[in-house]
């Protein structure tokens, strides 16, 4: 009986010591203060119509290689529409989505995939409360000479298809 009492006391003591450790909350990653401002890309002159049309042409060429039907929008650094093209048969609802992705990428100076990752992978659901956010890949900032000149947005395929086409369009900007 004494041995059983000893085991019970030992188990209670072990549980008490472990529960003290389990109650220590982990550090909140949202409280981290980075040294540098993230996504601090300076603004440049707005993208020209010729550059916008060239980016769209490259995105369309990539989409055609895979038989994707996309809507492609290019906005300037102020998130104003510069050029848009809808491929034959592209989903009508994706017209507005492509423009929204481009505007979000320009306004927030980052790929829209960052927002998708914040919600899907990091579970930072507060991202959903920010006006103008699109949490779907397929919006890419256009940077020339280290300065933001606009953004391209593609929609109509899966997020990964949209992203591939956008990156092809963005590659035309040096």
Architecture overview:
- The chain is globular, with a radius of gyration of 24 Å.
- The relative contact order is 0.19.
- Strand 3 and strand 4 (about 145-155) form a beta hairpin.
- It has helices at about 1-20, 50-65, 95-110, 115-120, 160-170; strands at about 70-75, 80-85, 140-145, 145-155.
- The longest helix has 21 residues, at about 1-20.
- It has about 170 residues and is α+β, with helices and mostly antiparallel strands.
- Residues about 5-15 have low confidence and may be disordered.
- The chain has a single domain, classed as Beta-Lactamase (2-Layer Sandwich), CATH 3.30.450.150.
- About 45% of the residues lie in helices and about 15% in strands.
- Helix 2 (about 50-65) crosses helix 5.
- It has a four-stranded antiparallel β-sheet.
- The chain is built from five helices and four strands; from the N terminus they run H-H-E-E-H-H-E-E-H.
Main beta-sheet annotation = 4 strands, antiparallel
Task: Give the uncertain stretches in residue-range form.
Answer: 6-17
- For the secondary structure, the number of strands is 4
- Helical percent range? 40-55%
Q: What would you call the structural class?
A: alpha+beta
What is the CATH C-level name?
Alpha Beta
Tally the helices: what do you get?
A: 5
What is the H level of CATH, i.e. the homologous superfamily?
Haem-degrading domain
Assembly context of the chains: single chain
What is the correct CATH architecture? Answer: 2-Layer Sandwich
How large, in whole angstroms, is the Cα Rg? 24 Å
N→C terminal distance: 81 Å
Output the CATH topology: Beta-Lactamase
User: What's the arrangement of strands in the largest beta sheet?
Assistant: 2-1-4-3
pLDDT averaged over residues: 89
